[in-house]
């Protein structure tokens, strides 16, 4: 058996720190994306007998190879503590005790782990895992401090000891939606998720936009409605795929809008924040474009225009509307970065196409925080570009990624390869799109980026390969 210990401090009282860990979404927010992917948090969080299911990364893979790991919670040795122990996973033993103690200026967090990864006699493997745990807990500390700063900047109910808002989220089980829900929940707001399947947890409520099923009482409960639903666009643009991409966005948004409009004025949510995309501007932009820029041409531009037009239908009912035009979200949990990083690790990475086209990107944390920002501040209205302030080309992106992974970027991906994967229209509007988009409105409304540069983003999303 090997023992690992880590100590850190946060500028919150012990009770508040414990309460943060005990809220839904805490594990999602605390976990470095390169270290583990949350499959299902325990519910109630950290309650004795509850089980958390994750996919933990294999050391040295930058989060690109993961294995299932589940743990069961039990009571800790003191008032502000809890324990999780291995239920199933690639270890022979794991017991993690979390303890929170008041100190001058905040709380000391002690993490004590007893583990064994291999049969006796393979101590070198356990020593390697110890190094990996050191990197993981350093990243956990940074993530929690980052979130505390964000909560303080938004006067979060958990910290201000006030009642939180009621937040209803459609698409909350997706990659972005999980982070948005977790940010709201750990801040002290009350979150419910609209789900298409039979609800499993008390915070889930059923809807089926394909059949027009949505209970108006669920919308009347909400102070804010957030819509992140929609079929993935990372596919070949066949007629069937286009129809699904269109209907999954427009029809579901129309159902939400019409239901909110049908509520008595006093029962209506105050704000509707709906997803959109930088595809609104089309696949070609010669100059940097902000939210005042004209709509472009192409299938995705048409989808985004209709999507935003449909969402804006709530404005006649006195509901503030925000459309988040999201860029390419960079995270090791999915999307472009997860697809390209393995090629670079294998020494086969490089720019897409000519490499001259601009990449409108944003980190997963920043896109999630932009939704929270849009909900909480009344002066955020209309379209908002959710992109990082650092404009880069595909060639610059490839060089930065190769540098972080300590690999070459010698092998470009020709345009015809992306056409084979995505079809001609998909390649043009996705992989080879030239989108010089700037976050004018986010910056004007005081948003502070967590990861303003690619280097910041790669450090967060890929770690150092520990």
UniProtKB/TrEMBL annotation:
Q: Which Pfam families match?
A: DUF1731, Epimerase
Superkingdom field: Bacteria
Where in the numbering of this chain does the NAD-dependent epimerase/dehydratase domain appear? 167-374
Question: Family per UniProt?
Answer: Belongs to the NAD(P)-dependent epimerase/dehydratase family. SDR39U1 subfamily.
DUF1731 domain residues = 413-459
> What protein name applies here?
TIGR01777 family protein
Q: Which organism is it from?
A: Brevibacterium linens
């Amino acid at each position: 058996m090997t023992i690992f210990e880590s100590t850190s401090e946060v500028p919150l009282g012990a009770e508040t720190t414990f309460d943060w860990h005990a809220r839904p979404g805490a594990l999602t927010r605390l976990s470095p994306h390169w270290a583990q992917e949350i499959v299902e948090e325990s519910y109630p969080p950290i309650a004795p007998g509850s089980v958390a299911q994750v996919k933990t990364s294999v050391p040295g893979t930058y989060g690109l190879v993961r294995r299932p790991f589940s743990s069961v919670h039990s009571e800790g040795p003191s008032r502000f503590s809890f324990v999780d122990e291995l239920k199933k996973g690639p270890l022979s033993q794991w017991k993690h005790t979390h303890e929170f103690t008041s100190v001058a200026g905040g709380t000391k967090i002690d993490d004590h782990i007893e583990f064994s990864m291999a049969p006796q006699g393979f101590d070198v493997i356990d020593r390697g895992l110890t190094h990996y745990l050191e990197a993981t807990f350093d990243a956990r500390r940074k993530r929690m401090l980052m979130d505390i700063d964000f909560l303080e900047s938004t006067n979060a109910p958990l910290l201000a000891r006030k009642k939180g808002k009621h937040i209803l989220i459609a698409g909350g089980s997706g990659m972005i939606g999980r982070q948005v829900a977790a940010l709201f929940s750990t801040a002290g707001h009350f979150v419910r998720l609209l789900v298409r399947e039979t609800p499993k947890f008390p915070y889930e409520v059923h809807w089926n936009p394909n059949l027009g099923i949505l209970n108006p009482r669920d919308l009347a409960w909400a102070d804010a409605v957030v819509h992140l639903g929609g079929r993935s666009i990372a596919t070949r643009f066949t007629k069937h795929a286009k129809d699904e991409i269109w209907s999954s966005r427009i029809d579901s948004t129309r159902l939400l809008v019409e239901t909110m409009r049908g509520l008595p004025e006093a029962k209506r949510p105050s704000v509707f924040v709906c997803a959109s995309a930088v595809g609104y501007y089309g696949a070609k932009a010669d100059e940097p474009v902000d939210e005042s820029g004209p709509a472009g041409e192409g299938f995705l531009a048409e989808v985004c225009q209709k999507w935003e037009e449909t969402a804006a239908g709530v404005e006649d009912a006195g509901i503030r509307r925000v459309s988040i035009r999201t860029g390419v979200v960079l995270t090791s949990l999915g999307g472009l970065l997860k697809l390209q990083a393995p090629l670079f690790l294998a020494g086969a990475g490089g720019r897409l196409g000519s490499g001259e086209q601009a990449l409108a990107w944003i980190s997963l944390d920043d896109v999630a925080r932009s939704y929270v920002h849009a909900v909480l501040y009344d002066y955020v209205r209309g379209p908002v570009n959710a992109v990082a302030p650092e404009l880069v080309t595909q060639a610059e992106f490839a060089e930065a990624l190769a540098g972080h992974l300590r690999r070459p970027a010698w092998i470009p991906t020709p345009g015809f390869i992306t056409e084979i994967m995505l079809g001609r229209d998909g390649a043009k509007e996705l992989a080879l799109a030239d989108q010089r988009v700037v976050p004018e409105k986010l910056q004007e409304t005081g948003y502070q980026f967590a990861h303003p540069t690619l280097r910041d983003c790669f450090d967060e999303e890929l770690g150092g390969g520990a």
